[in-house]
Amino acid sequence: MGSLSLDGTHYPYPSRRTVVYARGGMVATSQPLASAAGVEVLRRGGNAVDAAVAAAAALAIVEPTSNGIGSDAFAIVWHDGKMYGLNSSGRSPALLSFDALAARGMAEMPTHGWLPVTVPGAPGAWAALSERFGRVSLREALAPAIAYATDGFPVAPVTSVNWRRAVEAYQSRLRGAVHDPFFKLFAPGGAPPQAGACFRNPDAAQTLKAIAESGARAFYEGEIAARIDRFAHETGGLLRASDLAAFAPEWVEPLSVRYRGYDVWELPPNGQGIVALMAFAILEGLDISAMSPEERAHVEIEAIKLAFSVGLAEIADPAAMRRSPSELLAEDFVTGLRSRITSEALMLPPSRPQPGGTVYLCTADGEGNMVSFIQSNYMGFGSGIVVPGTGVSLQNRGHNFSLDPSHPNALAPCKRPYHTIIPAFLTRGGKAVGPFGVMGGFMQPQGHVQVLSQALDLGHNPQAALDAPRWQWMSGKHVLVERALGIEAIQKLVDRGHDIEVTDDPTPFGRGQIIWRDGHSVLAGGTEPRADGAIAIL
User: Fold this and answer.
1) Is 17 in contact with 522 (CB distance < 8 Å)?
2) Is residue 358 flagged as an active site residue?
3) Phi-psi region for residue 368, left (φ > 0), alpha (ψ -120 to 50) or beta?
4) How many domains does the chain fold into?
5) Distance CA 163, CA 66 (A)
6) What angle do CA 193, 198, 201 make, to 5 degrees?
């Protein structure tokens, strides 16, 4: 049985940060300003849910390269000793269909523009969480984000790099008046802001105020919805006010598997959390702790490949799935997958889709409440569409629909696509240990497996688990590996038949946060060294 170490003595690799401890409350995000926003709300009497809403809204402003008001969101909430799941992902427009694509001369789902835009769920998530569990008003929770948007904020270093990369890519790919508002907002004067430069988004401030005053209804039924509808009509989009008005977040039951004496929790489809659960179930039957770094990486890669071979074929809007989550997690099914692992790399057919653009955060208060929250555009800024007068950049989650009519995830009207963003949670004996997550498109289940294995199989603390070198399975036998894994382990993976690509770029390996609580109510937090991450404490 694995043990969970929360002390500061176990570091498998040179750590760039140290584990953080607190009792009164903790907020871990990829941006110091967002972490500060969450703790500010805790100080004003809010709980962990209020802090999560505050941090999420702040991230929508200070890290627009990954998320925004036009994002989707998912959450796992531990409140008063019980667990709750929230799916706030939007559906496709009622007018989106195979015929609509064909009428526009599209043979594949585009990555940008109006066609991949689905209804944004993030504002609905903030309002639903605040209404059900919050202690302060939504207005108070969104106040820090409104201040950042109104007064401006200094752009963080990693965010500035991603901003520049995204703008350069969009400038080379996106054409037409539909994208002019995007460049006007995010590349004023033709260039993105540099690190340390102050950036303001006053239109987003007004949108946040309307969301705060109306409990998000203004976004889905009021003036903001009307602006979105009007711009779509003017520029060839299919999203309508009726699509926005039909949206509602859905409370769902999280799924779990046992791993090393702990219960690992993920949300059910349309998210890909079940890929991580299948991988954990496969690895539960193997003694990872006794393996060399190369052996451990090999079996984890193989488990992920096998889990994805199922997930990419099966995950969709639950109403369209051919097999239920319980079937995919059944012991005999998982045993069959595990039996396919050998000493050699497997060749599996599914390819890896596009990378994502996401933020993950977690929060905890002094009363035992904890939140695992994830919010995302897709592919950086998303669709490349900013609705004039709103400051809202719309996501492009519809790109993940399949254009195979026989696939469960086939494009259809009013349908939720396969979703990459997944929050996670750890419990033991029915008690909360705490939230964790790793953002990054299809890296996310892979990050969950690697980080939790570092903690439960090797006994490393949350920060050390996040610091450890990572890999990402890309497709077939192709695996991207951080150089810090070590030349010997890398060569042995090559010897096993893996097609290894070594990189010093941290971007592909996701960005994680962890807050875990020990038996004495002490919180231990880790934040991502590959980002501008920061932990704020009360």
Assistant:
1) no
2) yes
3) left
4) 2
5) 9
6) 85
187 pLDDT above the threshold of 50: yes
Q: Are strands 478-482 and 499-503 parallel, antiparallel or unpaired?
A: parallel
Cβ atoms 276, 328 nearer than 8 A: no
Percent share of the chain, pLDDT over 90: 89
Structure tokens at 6: 């929360």
d(CA 240, CA 375): 23
Which CATH number characterizes residue 450's domain? Answer: 1.10.246.130
Q: Which residue, among 441, 451, 336, has the nearest Cα to 382 in the 3D structure? A: 441
Q: Which of 271, 226, 215 is nearest to 248 (CA)?
A: 215
Q: 468: buried, middle or exposed (CB in 10 Å: 19+, 13-18, 0-12)?
A: buried
List C-alpha distances in Å: 353 to 111, 406, 418, 525. Answer: 11, 19, 11, 31
Q: Which amino acid is at 83?
A: M
Task: Give φ, ψ of 290 to 5 degrees.
Answer: -90, 0
Which entry of 65, 358, 363, 420 is annotated as an active-site residue?
Answer: 358
CB contact at 8 A, 531 and 380: no
Whole-number Å distance between alpha carbons of 125 and 216: 9
Give the integer Cα–Cα distance in Å for 317 and 416. 5
Residues 28 and 136 in one domain: yes
Tell me the residue range of the domain where 146 lies: 20-250+358-400
Question: Are 432 and 370 within 8 A, CB to CB?
Answer: yes
| 283 token code pair | 């690895």
Say whether pTM exceeds 0.85.
Answer: yes
**Neighbour count for residue 234 (Cβ, 10 Å):** 11
C-alpha distances out from residue 96 to 114, 193, 354, 388, 400, Å:
10, 35, 21, 23, 14
Tokens of 101: 């694509």
pLDDT tens track for 109-163: 999 999 999 999 999 999 999 999 999 999 999 999 999 999 999 999 999 999 9
Does an H or E element contain 396, and which? none
| C-alpha–C-alpha distance, residues 279 and 256, integer Å | 12
Is 314 found in the same domain as 189?
Answer: no
Give strand pairing partners of 86. 75, 251
